[in-house]
Amino acid sequence: MADGASRVASAGGAPILEVRELVKHYPIRGGLFSPSQMVHALDGVSLSVARGETLAVVGESGCGKSTLARCIIRLEQPTSGHILLKGADITVLAGRPLRELRRALQIVFQDPYASLNPRWSIASLIGDPMRLHGLAARGERRGRVASLLETVGLGPEFMDRYPHELSGGQRQRVAIARALAMQPEVIVCDEPVSALDVSIQAQVINLLKRLQRQFGIAYIFISHDLSLVKHISDRVAVMYLGQIVELAETRAARRRVLHPYSQALFSAAPVADPQAAAARKRIILAGDVPSPIEPPSGCRFHTRCPYRQDRCAREAPQLRAVEDRLVRCHFAGEPGFPPEVPA
Amino acid sequence: MRRLATFWLRYRRNRGAVAGALALAVILALALLGPILYPTDPFDMVGRPFSLPFDRFPLGTDVAGRDILAGILNGGRVSLLIGVLASLSATIIGVALGAVAGYYGGRIDDLLMRTTEFFLCIPSFVLAVVLVAIFQPSVVTVTVAIAVVSWPSVARLARGEFIAHRDREYVQGCRAIGMPDWEIILLQIMPNALPPIIVVSSLMVATAILTESGLSFLGLGDPNLVSWGYMIGVARTVLRTAWWMAAIPGVMILLTVLAINLVGEGLNDALNPRLRKR
Lengths: 343, 278
Prior knowledge:
The complex is a heterodimer. Chain A has helices at 3-9, 65-72, 95-104, 122-132, 138-151, 168-180, 198-215, 226-232, 250-255, 260-268, 274-279, 310-314; strands at residues 15-28, 37-50, 54-58, 80-85, 88-89, 105-108, 186-190, 218-223, 235-240, 243-249, 320-322, 325-327. In chain A, β4 and β5 (88-89) form a beta hairpin. By secondary structure, chain A is an alpha/beta fold. Chain A is built from twelve helices and twelve strands. By secondary structure, chain B is mainly alpha-helical. Chain B has a single domain, classed as Orthogonal Bundle (MetI-like fold), CATH 1.10.3720. Chain B contains eleven helices and no strands. Chain B has helices spanning 2-12, 15-37, 68-104, 106-120, 124-134, 139-166, 169-176, 181-217, 228-235, 243-271, 273-276. The interface between A and B is medium-sized, with 26 and 15 residues.
């Protein structure tokens, strides 16, 4: 493995969280006479994040991003593979050790309208993690909640309100405060701003970045919004049908991507400058994402790839080091691939 | 407080429900205060049998010369008590089993739901008759029997609600912060799942009163207590000569069940406003 690529694969320093060959298959029960089938949500995903780093995971809906998020924080049990937190395997923890783990590893969900229980006040929503983990005595809790609310840019006057009295942006701040209450080292952000208005998105993103600087939290940032990802992440992993097809430093990916799918994905991201947007060539992929129940043979992307060759349908490419990144394509690294304009 | 006020505003919009609540309040008051204000023993022979209503006694006497009004007032107590207690216990059993089955799913769900279906596929009244006949008829056994035949429908409803809630993000969020399962079930999901359950169990009171009346009619009620069903059972032999004897307790059952159903409908409108907008 080339030196640059190995650095990309394993984050900067010692990784705080490492995912190795994670597989998640969901059985779907067939009818009486049809055999039961498997949804291949994740097929051998490996990645890692270092302290204070942001790793973005991008891909279109149904590519397994959210399943990855849920497996990492152990809301779903992966079919196989390992998740290592600070070097310790957390894949099979249960009971008390699992609860201990929850402190270090938190999640912020996509929809702040669904992720806060409408029956509880903000003070109890944010105080719950402290209560459950004995992080603050009953008397101190309100004070801690108030200071957390200030940390996320809300005042202590929000404590006795209920989620339905708050706007989407305010709710997402509460959800972030709730995750912060455990003083986590890694936060998985599952599309944390895609349910918010654009004007609010920037505020929440800036809050997340500030918290990262302040507390050295590592983010796994799940998103389909590439302009956002380019802005916030240090490295980016592109997923397609349960597999990582390209993993690169964001700076390098912004310059150029090597996998035809990343190329199509990045070409579809909106650009603010209308002149640049007009000059740009967009790649429109034909067809829908194939069913994850029976993923295509060989390269999973070959059914929609503009550059496919016979080999692609037969042989599954491995994720391999090309230049300064990892790419899952037979032809990546060949001169002039992928071409600027699809043939 | 504000939640209660909005609840009342929504409830008030359904006029039938308001009428039902009024009727139910009157029936409850009669059952609670009646025997105190009109202290005739319903088993006493106070006069000649078959005396007409509005004659010497307000509602006449039955085949054994017992005061029918006293029977109605005392019987109302028994009917309502059994109806409420039986539905309450059926709700608690049903919600507990349904919550566990729905939240955990898998094997536990299979086991609990097959058990529930076992109870559902036996005609409930027949099962109640069998249960009361095996154990001696008394208020307790009748209540237990009605609860035993009523919980499966609550269990299925509660299970459905818990399945709908268990994968919501707020529940996943609670699991992510390490909240124990019992707390998620009781304090997080339960308050959100309760409204439809309240509606069903309020309607169940009406069914329980009917079942109790049926049991008493067949002579399977508590022998030491008068109930409306028992009074109808006593009067059935003289239905052609003294129809009012059966009609008076019959109308009481009808009014009570109707009132409870109206209240249940009103609760449904007030607690599940989304369902209303169909």
